[in-house]
Amino acid sequence: MPRRGVTALACLAALVALACEGGTSATPRPTKSAPPSSGPGGIAALGDSITTGFASCLVLTSCERNSWSTGDGLRVQSHYRRLLEQNAAIRDRTYNHARPGARADALEGQAQAAVRDRADYVTVLIGANDACRGGVDAMTPVAEFRADVDRGLRVLRTGRPKARVLVVSIPDLYRLWEVGHGDSRAVRAWRRGICPSLLAEATSTAPADRARRAAVRERIDAYNTELVAACRAYGSRCRHDGGAVHKVRFTLDLLNPLDWFHPNATGQGRIAEVTWRSSGLAN
After folding, report:
1. Which of 14-23, 37-46, 188-197 is least confident?
2. What is the DSSP string of 121-171?
3. Could you tell me if 139 and 103 are in contact, meaning their C-beta atoms sit under 8 angstroms apart?
4. What is the DSSP secondary-structure string of 170-198?
5. Is residue 110 packed enough to be buried (19+ CB in 10 Å), middle (13-18) or exposed (0-12)?
6. Which of 131, 148, 160, 168 is the one with CA 20 to 30 A from 48?
7. Cβ(142)–Cβ(202) under 8 Å?
8. In the structure, how many helices (H) and strands (E) does the chain have?
């Protein structure tokens, strides 16, 4: 229950800020125990709030059943559900180590958990929170971002050398500003502290605000370039989505109506669809 005197709006703002500005969960969720060494190792998901299905159940919290990667709900044809159609032996062998607010420097720890799970297929979607900071100067430097990603992938390559890895491009957050800044509902939600480096003063046309948005857009492009290079350096067991997620022309009907930032179940399904084509696992 909220403390006395704290309004519901303040609580809502705190939750959103936690997911979108780099916070971490106060109480880590328990992960499932690792599968036996024989048989398929299943699928592990690494990343941030997008991969947890955040807000896709119309509550500002993670909703993993709608995750594009490991979701087992009926509303999203996730990678897990698609793999299950190919091989029933992986049933319940899903491990979602993504966390709201995670940045690239969390990837190493998440990868270590995937190795403990003996995952045979690992998805990686990280980087939005490295750009979504309090301001442009606080964004993760490109070289640091690449080093963080390399450390995480190195853990996977060393610990699970035969596992398939899918590295996914960062969504086009600038596109969200383009389609949402004229919508009063989205602008009100963004004022609660959602991705302030990009979405603060969303309706402003002042040169400084336009330059700030352009800088965030350029930084995400640079991160995506490094993700391609990092996957290439990993070797033949790594696939990149070829920019498929970044190319998705998101519209407001693919976003949840609480923060107008995270994909709803339909948006999660769209991510699953375009990334599955790049996974190399489709029949």
Report:
1. 14-23
2. EEEEE--HHHHSSSSGGGSPPHHHHHHHHHHHHHHHHHH-TT-EEEE-PPP
3. no
4. PP-HHHHHHHHTT-HHHHHHHTTTSSHHH
5. buried
6. 160
7. no
8. 11, 5
Alpha-carbon distance values, 280 to 20, 239, 275 (Å) = 31, 8, 10
Q: What are the tokens at 245?
A: 């997620």
Mean pLDDT of the chain: 89
* Separation CA 128–CA 125 (nearest Å): 9
CA angle, residues 47, 251, 105, in degrees to nearest 5: 15
Contact 42, 119 (CB under 8 A): yes
Are 258 and 60 in contact by the 8 Å Cβ rule? The answer is yes
Could you give the count of Cα atoms lying within 13 Å of 18 in the half-sphere of its Cβ?
17
CA distance 50 to 265: 11
Sequence-distant (6+) residues with CB within 8 A of 219 are 130, 131, 136, 139, 142
Nearest to 127 by CA among 110, 142, 109, 111: 142
CA–CA separation, 33 and 16 (whole Å)? 30
pLDDT exceeds 60 at position 24:
no
Q: Which residues are paired to 121 by β-bridges?
A: 43, 164
Instruction: Check: CB of residue 137 under 8 Å from CB of residue 177.
Output: no
Alpha-carbon distance of 190 to 258, in angstroms, equals 10
- Confidence (pTM): 0.87
Q: Which residues of 34-66 are buried (b: 16+ CB within 10 A; e: fewer)?
A: bbeeeebbbbbbbbbbbbbbbbbbeebebbbbb
- Count of residues for the chain? 283
3-state SS class at 43: strand
